[in-house]
Amino acid sequence: VSYRQGTLWLSPDELAAMLTDLLAVLGGRLGNTPAPGRAPYLLSAILFPSGAPPSAPPSAPPSAPPSAPPSAPPSGPPSPHETGR
User: Fold this and answer.
1) Structure letter (DSSP) for residue 75
2) What element of type H or E holds 82?
3) Which of 2, 22, 25, 77 is the 20 to 30 A CA-CA neighbour of 16?
C-alpha cells in the first residue's frame, strides 16, 4: 500500500490541465485486462479545496513557539524505560 498527500496551488485552468495530463498518463493502461504477472491496483484521486486561500502564500515558515521552562525532575526511581537520568 502506498499513500501520498500534498497541497497543490492551482488555478481552475491549471487544475483542468493537470487532470488532462493524468488521464493521458493513465489512459494507456485503463484497458489492461487480467493476465499472468498482473495484479489489480485500486487508484483513487480525491480533489477538494482545502479552504479559502490566504491573500499570498507564506514566504517563510512560522517561527517556533517559545519553549516551556524545564520541568522538575521526576520523583522516585526511574522507570525501566528511562535512561540517562
Assistant:
1) S
2) none
3) 2
Cell of 54: 490566504
* Measured distance CA(51)–CA(67) in Å, rounded: 30
pTM of the model: 0.51
Judge whether 24 and 67 are in contact, CB under 8 Å: no
d(C-alpha 85, C-alpha 80), whole Å: 11
Write the pLDDT tens digit of every residue in 29-68.
999 999 999 999 998 888 888 876 666 665 655 555 555 4
Which bin fits 71, alpha (ψ -120 to 50), beta or left (φ > 0)? beta
- Residue 11: all three cell numbers together: 488555478
CA dist., res. 78 & res. 80, Å (int): 6
Q: Closest Cα partner for 9 from 45, 46, 54? A: 54
Give the best-scoring range by mean pLDDT among 6-15, 50-59, 71-80: 6-15
